């Protein structure tokens, strides 16, 4: 049973990366590269300390993202990390913020964050439905 949860989490993470990565590479600037490098550092650190990394991403976002793609990536990682810890409200708030970004990847990222929340509570059927919607 434990392996099944791990596999679902991996599947969600891979889907998330596939949606966010293509948009973030386009039009990168030196400032954007530094911002994205910090986002990736926090994503990596979030494996061990998701709550602290999500909070640090909030601070980074408050300082301002260099462009929409960088903001989308940072919000997506932040929402994912929030969904991994007991911060369901924060994850949902981040998903709503993503829905306000006029980009198809943002809507998909919001669905994947909600899928992670559903999977975390054992609602696998809803999680899979949300993943299907995100990938459509």
Q: What would you say this structure looks like, in words?
A:
This protein has 7 helices and no strands. It has helices spanning 2-25, 30-45, 50-63, 68-84, 88-99, 104-120, 124-135. The longest helix has 24 residues, at 2-25. The protein is globular and about 40 Å long. It has 136 residues and is mostly helical. The model is unreliable at 19-27 (pLDDT under 50).
Short description:
The chain is mostly helical. It has helices at residues 2-25, 30-45, 50-63, 68-84, 88-99, 104-120, 124-135.
Q: What is the overall shape?
A: globular
Order of helices and strands: HHHHHHH
Largest sheet: none
- Gyration radius, rounded: 14 Å
Strand content: under 5%
- N-end to C-end Cα span: 28 Å
Number of strands: 0
| Relative helix content | over 70%
Number of helices: 7
Q: Could you say which structural class the secondary elements and strand pairing correspond to?
A: mainly alpha
Q: Segments where pLDDT lies below 50 for 5+ residues?
A: 19-27
Average pLDDT across residues?
85
List the helices and strands and how they pair.
Elements: H1 2-25, H2 30-45, H3 50-63, H4 68-84, H5 88-99, H6 104-120, H7 124-135
Helix pairs in contact: 1-4, 1-6, 2-3, 2-4, 3-4, 4-5, 4-6, 5-6, 6-7
């Amino acid at each position: 049973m434990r392996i099944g949860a791990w596999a679902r989490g991996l599947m969600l993470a891979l889907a998330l990366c596939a949606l966010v990565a293509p948009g973030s590479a386009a039009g990168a600037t030196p400032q954007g590269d530094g911002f994205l490098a910090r986002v990736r550092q926090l994503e990596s650190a979030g494996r061990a300390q998701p709550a602290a990394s999500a909070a640090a991403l909030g601070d980074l976002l408050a300082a301002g993202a260099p462009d929409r793609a960088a903001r989308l990536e940072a919000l997506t990682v932040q929402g994912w990390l929030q969904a991994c810890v007991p911060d369901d409200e924060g994850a949902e708030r981040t998903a709503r913020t993503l829905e306000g970004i006029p980009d198809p990847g943002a809507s998909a990222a919001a669905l994947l964050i909600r899928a992670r929340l559903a999977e975390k509570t054992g609602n696998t059927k809803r999680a899979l439905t949300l993943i299907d919607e995100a990938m459509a």
